[in-house]
Amino acid sequence: MNFIYISPEFPVTGTAFITQLRAKGVTVLGIGESPYDGLPMELRNAMTEYYRVDSLQDYDQVLRAVAFFTFRYGKIDWLESNNEFWLEQDAQLRRDFHITTGFQPEDMERVKRKSQMKEVFRQAGIPVCRGQMLTTPEDALSFTKEVGYPVIAKPDIGVGASQTYKFMNEEELLAFFADKPDVDMFMEEFVPGEVVTYDGIVDAKGETVREFTLECPVSIMDMANLGVETMFYSTKGPAEDVAPYGRKAVKAFGVKSRYIHFEFFRLYEDKKGLGKKGDILGLEVNMRPPGGFAPHMHNMSNNTDCFRAYADMVTGAPVEEESADEKYYTLFLGRRHYVHYAHSEEETEARWQAGIQQKIYPAPAEAAVMSDIVYIFKTHDLDELYAFAAYATQHA
Prior knowledge:
single chain; Dna Ligase, domain 1; D-amino Acid Aminotransferase, Chain A, domain 1; nine-stranded antiparallel beta sheet; four-stranded parallel beta sheet; 17 strands; 23% strand; globular
C-alpha cells in the first residue's frame, strides 16, 4: 500500500501517524517544505522517501511530486495531510490521481464552510444556534434585533478561532464594517456554553472505531484572541451526552476513512430560542485530528493508541479492542510569560508532581494560542484536575 503524507513534519503528530503506518507495512511517501536533514530522525526513518518542494501552496510543484511517486512506486492508495489547511488541495490531488480513499473536491463546501455545516447539522436533526452570512450593516442589524447582543462574526471558511469577533453593541458592529476582512464572514448569536468535542477514527464503512471527547471550560475564542490561559481536558471515553450527536453527524456528513474533530456547545444556562441548560448544539466539523497534543492526551486518558488505531483503519486490519484498564482525565493547561502568578513553576511542580506528566514549551508561533508554558496533568479525579488548574493559574 502506498500512502502519500502531505506536510509530514507539521502538525507534529505526523511522526506518530507515519511511524504506525510504517509498522503496518505501508510505504509512506512524504511531500513537504522542510529540508530533509531538518526532519526528526524518527520521521525520516519511518518514511520510505521524501520529496521536498519550495512551497506546498504551489499546486504544480506538489502535483509533480505526486506524479514522481506514482511513476516510481505505482498507484497511490492514500493521500492525506491530516491538516485542515490542505483539505481542499488534498481533495484535488485525489481527483487528479484517481485516489478514492478520501474527500473529493465536490465535498468541500459542506465540510469547509460554516454556513453549509449548519445546514447539514439541521438536516440531521442536530440543534444549532441561529446564524447568517454577514453582508451589509442593515442585514446585520436586522439579525441582532432577532437574537440580541452579543453576536459573533467569523470567516465562513477558517481554521480555529482566528479572525473571530464578538460585538457587544451596535456601535462595535457598525465599526467592524469600516475595516471588514476581505473574506466571506458568517454571523451567529452568542451561545452561553462550553465547547465539547466528538473526536474519533471513522472506518471505511462510516463507523467510528475510536471515540474521544475534549472539554473546554475556557472559551477557545478568548484563548486565541484575549490571551487567557489555555485549558482543556480529555475525558474518560466519549462524553455520554455528546457521543450520540457526534455519531449522527458522522453519518450526516458522509465521513469515511478519517480521523475527525467535531465541535459542539453544551449550554451552561437556559437561553430563550436556543435551549435549556445542558442541551447540546452543533458548532462545526473539522475533518482532521484534534490539534496539538490532544491525540496524545486521548491516549493517556483512555489507555489506547489512536495512532495505531488509525493505521489499522487505513490498512483494513481489525482495530484492537479498547483497554479495560482504568481511565483518566488528562488536562492541557497553559501559563503566560507576561502574567505574574501566585505560585512559581517550581512551587507548582513540587506540589503537583504526582499528576504532572509533561512540561512543554510551545514554539513562538504556537504560543499565542497554546500559551508559553504548558503542563499535561493526569488524574482519576475531576475535582483534583480543577484544583490543579486553579493553583497553577492563580494570579498574584
